[in-house]
Amino acid sequence: RPFDPSGLCRDQLMQEAISNRRKLKANESDVLFKKANAARALALDRQRAEEKRKEQKDLVSSSFSS
Asked: Residue 53 pLDDT > 90, yes or no?
């Protein structure tokens, strides 16, 4: 049977396509993961800022009442 380079190329291209798709999927989930982490961090920061604001408000109002 003669050597068929086109078959080899096709197999190689298929393999590359599969591995590229896998890389893309991994990259996609990585991006989603990072976005979720960023959103969570942002929410925590907002919560902390809100708590600080409340504490300062309480301090101010308690110093006025005494």
From this structure: yes
